[in-house]
Amino acid sequence: MDSREVTMCSTVHAAFSGRTVRRKVKQAGVWQTKTVPVPDTVVDYNRSMGGVDVSDALIGYYSVRHKTMKWYKTFFYHFLDIAVVNSFILHKELHKMRGDPSRTKPHTQKSFREKLAAEMIGEVPSTPPPLPHHHSYACPNATVLKRYCRNCSNAGNKTVKTPVYCTKCQVPLCMTARKNCFLAWHSSD
């Protein structure tokens, strides 16, 4: 905690809950320990602002912010800084969680940023090779005109007429729920 006075405003905390801290104060050239009242607002602030202070310090070391007259660009650069610093902090935490002492040390912020930039501007993987081109398969189609089924005619039954024909072979073939000459014709090849 700082020893200087601060001013805070809160709608959540009471003005004074009775908490005190001990501080060294120089009075008449002699250091003495003095009990100083501390509001809950200051205690909560110090408890939760440590991470923000660390983040601000890390952003301050290597900032991408540029001087600009456009407020939205400043906003963008600051959020970019926050995203990079947060990912760096996650990198360090993940390295700690793995707990393997034989592993290399985690990146420094500078080397992390360099590697991140290299990854982002690196070559994109090439597009996958195109799939082999399949020749057009036989596909049934229908017409208004009915013609004799070629498969049934070859089997000796010349009376079956069908509107279905193969678009590839241009052969009329019947295709019903009971009989599928289209499938029989193309599986016999």
Helix content: 25-40%
Oligomer: single chain
- The first-to-last residue Cα distance is 88 Å
Shape: rod-shaped
**Largest sheet features:** 2 strands, antiparallel
Structural class per helix/strand content? alpha+beta
> Could you spell the SSE succession in H and E letters?
EEHHHHEHEH
Uncertain stretches: none
The average pLDDT score comes to 82
Helical stretch tally = 6
Number of domains: 3
Radius of gyration: 40 Å
Count of extended strands: 4
Query: Strand share of the residues?
Result: 15-25%
Q: Enumerate the strands of the largest sheet in spatial order, edge to edge or round the barrel.
A: 1-2
Give keywords.
rod-shaped, two-stranded antiparallel ribbon, 4 strands, 6 helices, alpha+beta, 189 residues
Question: Quick gist of this model?
Answer:
The chain has 189 residues and is α+β, with helices and mostly antiparallel strands. It has six helices and four strands, in the order ββααααβαβα. Strand 1 (20-27) and strand 2 (30-37) form a beta hairpin.
Report on this model:
This protein folds into 3 domains: 1-48, no CATH class; 50-97 and 106-119, no CATH class; 140-187. The chain is built from 6 helices and 4 strands. It has helices at residues 40-48, 50-61, 71-98, 109-121, 150-154, 181-187, and strands spanning 20-27, 30-37, 140-148, 161-166. The strands form 2 sheets. Strands 1-2 form a two-stranded antiparallel ribbon. Strands 3-4 form a two-stranded antiparallel sheet. The longest helix is centred in the middle third of the chain and has 28 residues, at 71-98.
